[in-house]
Automatic annotation (TrEMBL):
PANTHER family: 4-CARBOXYMUCONOLACTONE DECARBOXYLASE FAMILY PROTEIN (AFU_ORTHOLOGUE AFUA_6G11590). Signal peptide: none annotated. Residues 34-118 form the Carboxymuconolactone decarboxylase-like domain. It comes from the Bacteria. Pfam families: CMD. This is Carboxymuconolactone decarboxylase family protein.
Amino acid sequence: MNRLPYRDAADLPPEDQALLVRPVNLYRAMVNSPGMTRAFLGLAHHIRHHSALDARLRELAILQVGWVTRSPYEWSHHVAIGRDFGLTDEDIGAIAVESRGGTSGLEPAARAVLRVAREMVAGADTLSDATFAAAAAHLDQASLTDLLVIVAFYCGVVRFLGAARIGVEDSYQPCLDEFPLPVDEQPEKN
């Protein structure tokens, strides 16, 4: 059960109602602090619409964060969002293969992005020189910088989701049913 109340636009003063233009549970809980929500949405909007990182690679990185942290909310939302940005079912399925230490059919740039995300989820100073170099071989400086910020941002998002116990909306449950998160399997440590 969620620890923060879910607010609806009608619960908010007129100047804050636009914060729930997408009334998903994450924002409905976060809007308990409108100023924080505005700041959060600013970066989230930039990531989604103005990042130098290719949208498909961005979504793979976010999904990798959701997979490693076993965040049903993040995973389900970005399965749906990722499809809107060009992810295929094979791309989504490859995350499990790569997370187990296997080699999927993804291209080298995507595999490097996933590895960056896995290593960054593991801790603050866990991105190896080899993994950084592999990503840098495929990304320009702006895209590489954005990748690191995006993964760090979504590490924070999944921590908030878990701490506040934000529930997955019924409309996103089919994504979890189609691509369930593992329950017993531990992610591969790189």
